[in-house]
Write the structure tokens for this entry.
Amino acid sequence: MHEWTLQEAARKVRDKEISSRELTRALLDRIERINPKINAYVTVLHDKAMAEATARDETQAKGEALGVLHGVPLGLKDIFCTRGIRTTCGSRILSYFLPPYDAAVAEKVAASGAVLLGKHNMDEFAMGSSTETSHFGPTRNPWATGRIPGGSSGGTAAAVAAGLCYAGVGTDTGGSIRQPASLCGVVGVKPTYGRVSRYGMIAFASSLDQGGPVTRTVPDAAMMLGVIAGHDRRDSTSVDLPVPDYPAAAERPVKGMKVGLPREYFEVEGLDPAVRGAMEKALDALVVQGAQAVEISLPHTSFAVATYYIIAPAEASSNLARYDGVRYGYRAKVAGGLIEMMSRTRAEGFGAEVKRRIMIGTYALSAGYYEAYYGKAQKVRTLIRRDFDAAFAKVDAILTPTSPTPAFRLGEKTGDPLTMYLSDIFTIPCNLAGIPGISVPCGMSAEGLPIGAQLLAGHFREETLFTAAAAIERALPHPPVAPLEGA
Ligand code: GLN
């Protein structure tokens, strides 16, 4: 039953073919067997999930109104605050943090009737592309356990790919939903900035961060986005727009849609031939169903990674100033005064990548450098956004690879942060522009590693993404649950 889609699982519980307890028990048992092999969960809520499932079954027995995900077990990236449930953000500094409140996403998932199985592993403070910067050890790719699952939502993508939950919610600041989805053979959506509330989502780079679904199929992703999207007064950047019927968009024909192919994305050095081949298949799938391919140009693409690595660390250095050992989280045991306690807390509490980002960000924001770095980066960001505005005057959607290569080996890029940063070259421009993006499986490499296609659309055009991605999914063989040996 772990192979069911989210929609199937939801229907079966609703139709009483299976109880929430049976379903939750089955997934918890599977997590117990599989999780030690891939480390996708940092926290598994054995008793709490069963208690929640029991309550769901009782609600149903009483004939009360049911939410769309009634009784279905899900997981959340450990960046979403969950009341009374440890929320670590992959960091030592929050390794014992019990939030006193729920993130908006956690509230919405609970209100839909879902059961929370646990919290997914992630790169520390979502900084990374491989889930190797987690204080809790790396997550492994369920398709090849010697390889990374992508990051930073690698735990979420691996859990969904391995059938350890029917859906998860991750976050994406520069690709952290789409890139791991691509490398694990699942679907991941980065919604328009402002579409999903950031309330209670631990901040990395506030002008870029956005929560979104990770699922095995496109209709499942549409269903899940419908659950978590919507206005929230507690997030000042949340947008007050009605939430469309996303699942309906996944059933619309793609006929007549104009799909742009950005020249610059296909000229990138290091684009794996298997990825290029899979992209051709994805494009064929769209064209065969009546879409029209149009070559376009996004001329400022080559500046996106450099721009991101000023803006994101600058915002992170400010956001992470709150972890000082005073109010919550880890505190170093020192005999000295306040300053020594704070510096030792941060020295011991943060890992190397987080420290690197804080140093870059602090430098870029310091007096005398602010205009040269941060000010300049914001201007380039505007140019990147204008590239997309111009493109979407001509096309409905843009098709690109999600990642230049399939999953790389554990440790392969940890020694060289720059190569790690470059693995996000295709996903970062979308965050800088604030537009929505999706990654959908579109093939396998010769070694049996999943490859994903990315689709981008204009602001609040998630429906276009679901329509196009569903067309690709219908045409190309959809990866099953990852065949972990002996599972
Ligand atoms: N890999 C990118 C980074 O390290 C993006 C991470 C993210 O989207 N959270 O910053």
Summary: Residues 304-378 form one domain. The mean pLDDT is 97.
